[in-house]
Amino acid sequence: MPKVAKELKPAAVASLRHDGRAGHAFHAVGGVSGLLLQVTATGGRSWIMRARIKGQRKHLGLGSFPEVSLAEARRRAADVRDAIRTGADPAEAWRIGAAARDLMAKGYAQGEAWVTARNQRESVQSGAVAAMKLSFSKAVDEYLKTKLTEFKNDKHQKQWRSTLDTYARPIIGETSVDKITVHDIERTLTPIWDTKTETASRLRGRIENVLAWATVKKHRTGDNPARWKGNLDAVMPKPSKVAKTDNQPALQLKDAPVWWKALKKRGGMGARALEFLTLCASRSGEIRGARWDEFTDLDGDNPMWTIPASRMKAGAEHRVPLSPAAVAVLDALPRSPESPFVFWAARGGMLSDMTISKVMRDMQEAAIAKGESGWLDRVSKRTAVPHGLRSTFRDWVAEKTDYPRDMAEMALAHTVGSEVERAYRRGDMLEKRRALMVDWATFLNG
Prior knowledge:
Blueprint: H1 10-14, E1 25-28, E2 35-39, E3 45-53, E4 56-64, H2 70-86, H3 90-109, H4 114-130, H5 136-147, H6 154-172, H7 182-193, H8 197-216, H9 239-242, H10 256-264, H11 269-280, H12 284-288, E5 295-296, E6 304-307, E7 318-321, H13 324-331, H14 353-369, H15 388-400, H16 405-411, H17 419-424, H18 430-444
Antiparallel strand pairs: 1-2, 2-3, 3-4, 5-6, 6-7
C-alpha cells in the first residue's frame, strides 16, 4: 500500500489545483493510505483510491468532489482498505458501507431500535453481494455472444476480441461496468494512443460498444465514458493529429523477382498459400478460405476462381482469372479428404493467418542470416508482410505496364467509380485482367 501522506484539512483540499502538466494531477490528502484527489486539466475533481490488489496496481473511483466530502472520502477509502485486507470485493466496499451508514443514520433519527438499523445494514450488504456487479470482462463475453455473428470472417472476430483482451482486460477487466470512468478509459488508451493510434481508436470504439450494451441491459447508467465527442476529446489528442502513416510494409519492385525465387524454394502449405496469394494479388482471408468448389475450368482455357461475396471485404462476388502459374500451384497441392479448403491446416481446418505471415518472417530471418538486408519496405524500412504484396502489385501496374488504373483496381477487388458509373458498367474486364495476371506472373519469374 502507498505511504500515508500528511493529513490535509478540508480548506487545504479545496484549494488543490492542476499543476499545468500533461495528464491529470493527483494529490495525496492523507488520513487513509492511497487516498488521492484527482484534478483534470479542465478543473474536474474526483476521489481516487490507489491500492495494490492481487499484485496489480489499481485506481478505484470513490466519487466526485465536492459532492463527496473529504470526511466521506476517507470513510469510503477505509472501507476499500478493509475489504482488501479481508479478501472482499473492494469495488463494492465503499458503496455497501455508505448505504449502511445512511440507513443507520436514518434509523437513529427516527428513533428506531439499533437492531433494526443493523438488520437493514446487513440486508444491504447481503443484497449487494448477491447482486454482484458485472465486470467488464464478463460484459465483453456476453456482448460478443451476439456481436460476433455480424462478422463475415473468422479473422475479424478474433481481432475484435484480441484488442479487448490485450489492451482493455489487464486494466479494467475486473472493474464493474457501472464504475468505469473516463479516467479508466484514458488509462487504458494512453499507452498505445501515440504508438498504435489506429488500434487505440478501434479499441475505444469497441469499449464504447460494450458499455453501451451494458447500459441497455441495465448493468450501468449515465453517460458512456468511452464516448469520444464531448467526452474523451476534451482530454486526449485527436487521432488524426498523432497517427502516423501505417501502410502495410510492401515488397519493393526491384526485390520482387529475387524474393519470388526464394519463396518457390520453400516447402509447406503456408508457402504455397503465400505463392497463390501473390499471383492473385488477393487478401489473406480470401486465400485461406478458398474451397475447391469455387474454382472452374482448371484444365481448360479459361480457369477461374469465383470468391463469394460473404468472404469479400466489399461484400460483392469477385472473379479472379487465373494465370497458368496460379493453376500450376493448385495442381501441385495435395488434397485433404477431410477438408474442403484448398490450403488446409494439419488438422484439416482453415490455414491460420499467422501461418502465411510466418513464411515471410522466416524468409526475412534467412536473408539476415546470410548478411543481407532482406525484404524491406522502401519508405518505412520495415519487413514486408503478405498484405503489402497487393501494394507491390499496384506499383508494378503503375510503373512497369500500360494497363489502365481501373483494371488494376478491379484486380484488387477495390470499388471503382461512382454508384452511377458502376450501375452502367456491368462487366469486370475479365479477359483483359487475365492478360494482366499472366504478365504479373511473368514479371515475378524474372
